[in-house]
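Quarterly update, task 2.4: iron/sulfur cluster-bound model.
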Amino acid sequence: MTVNLFGESQQALAEIVSEFSDKPFHARQLFSWIYSRAETDLVRMSNLPRPLRAALSERYGISHPRVELRQTSRDGTVKYLLRLEDGKAVEAVYIPEKTRVTLCISSQIGCPLGCTFCLTAKMGLVRNLTAGEIAGQVAVLAREHSLAANGYNLVFMGMGEPLNNYDEVLAAFRLLTDPQGFGIAARHVTLSTAGVVPGIRRLAREDPRPRLAVSLSATTDALRNELMPINRAYPLAELFLSLRELPLAPRETVTLEYVLLRGMNDRWEDARRLASLAGRLPLKVNLIPYNEACRDGYAATPLESARAFRDALLSRKIPASIRRRRGADISAACGQLAILDPAILEHPIPVA
Ligand code: SF4
């Protein structure tokens, strides 16, 4: 049984290689083979000396998550169930758009935050993903769709709350944005949080850091406490204060994601309150049509009402758009493949 090198940082690889070679550039070459060239066979790393390749192969290997299931939507969106080394599974989604591709990846198996409109929440937290398992989702989807480096956007919007798995998510982000690694521009990576304020504050100090999206979905603490229990720990005022403190680059915006739920958060006064919360913060609002396949008890806002909500924001100079529904027929980014998988539910931790 060999140890998987995929997910190791430059520094960790340097330590491993130093046991067999006194040339630091061998570790840099290994790093580039693993992440930039997506090579999984040490023996094929032709610019490394043969004895080094042989010595490494005895103890180490390189492997990505394995594709277990693939579901293709009528609109070209493809949802993957990926099997990990311990037998657990995770979802990642390939979303083709007019000019670019977006890959949606997961940061945890399940999620402990218990948002009431989210199917993943039903699983509770199974476990955090490692940096290798997070970057591995990108490696698999890039390979499956022959994506050129930097030819796609990446969003942490799959299963889990990325800021609750901060160290591994940031370690993966570094592998993904390292020019010798995947080489994705940091501005093409968006991390979506339910509003974990200490994580937002920590992220503000990173350079480079991903763009930030916040799943909001309510404009009063009372409703947000109900829909997204994380709000009880970090209410709206505190959340928006942390967003105002973000050192945004010129032209950088924060995205507010707002799942429209009929009769709950889609009225005119919700739009007015949302505009007032936004204030002068450079942001844009993504209105997300609710996928009724996700959880019982909620209904989607009709398109006409969604348009009226968007227009109410636009009239207050808040950039807003209705996100085109992608992969609805395969419940993309809804945790549905994985929740049907018994291996995932083997040891679930109940929703808090
Ligand atoms: S919406 Fe996101 S943060 Fe909330 S429970 Fe689902 S995966 Fe977790």
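Highlight for this quarter: Confidence is low (pLDDT under 50) at residues 345-352.
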